[in-house]
Amino acid sequence: MPKEKSAAKKGPAADKSPKKATPPATTSLNEPEAASYATKFYTIVLGAAAQRPESHMTPLEKMGMVRIGITKEDLEKLKKKTALDYDRLAKALSVARATLINKRGKEKFSSELSEKIVGLADIYSYGYEVFEEENKFNQWMFRPNTALGGLPPFDLVDNQFGREEVKNLIGRIDYGVYS
């Protein structure tokens, strides 16, 4: 990102317009540049199921979504937003492909599968916010990452601990910590 030019002060009537913070350079070996300051690039991944970006929801709000259940329509919105096909979604959610395909419209998935779907949506929502570009984050998810032992982040999201590790890595990128 280009740096902002500082305005020269001209006595007491200096320019008092707010300045944007210049994000520090990403120090990672293979990370695309990600903003490490507050942004307004928030994305709701599940559509109508989420009232605000999943990455900004409280655990209680996420629990409520899981208890209500995620519908096939919500999954389709996630699929479209993340550019994942059914094979990759089935891998990430640790279910058979048929489990995802056989639901229709407003039919809901089990609470266990709904929880995994919300967890995946949370990662993508946070990633989109940090990277400020959906396509850039979607690509990052499939690139080998040194901080993950050379594995692509997507290879770890099939269980709770892997999702936590990927989310923590995105957080380190967000704060400009070597990752």
Please give the structural blueprint.
Layout: H1 59-68, H2 72-82, H3 86-93, H4 97-101, H5 111-131, H6 134-140, H7 160-174
Helix pairs in contact: 1-5, 5-6, 5-7
* Helix percent band: 40-55%
Mean of all residue-level pLDDT scores: 80
Q: What is the overall silhouette?
A: globular
Domain tally: 1
* Approximate strand percentage: under 5%
What's the SSE pattern?
HHHHHHH
Low-confidence stretches: 1-39
Distance between the termini: 19 Å
How many β-strands, per DSSP? Answer: 0
Main sheet, how many strands, which sense, barrel?
none
- Which structural class do the helices and strands define? mainly alpha
Radius of gyration from the CA trace? 19 Å
Number of helices: 7
What does this 3D model show about the protein?
By secondary structure, the chain is mostly helical. The chain has one domain. The protein is 43% helix and 0% strand. The protein has helices at residues 59-68, 72-82, 86-93, 97-101, 111-131, 134-140, 160-174. Helix 1 crosses helix 5 (111-131), helix 5 (111-131) crosses helix 6 (134-140) and helix 5 runs parallel beside helix 7 (160-174). Mean pLDDT is 80; it is low at 1-39.
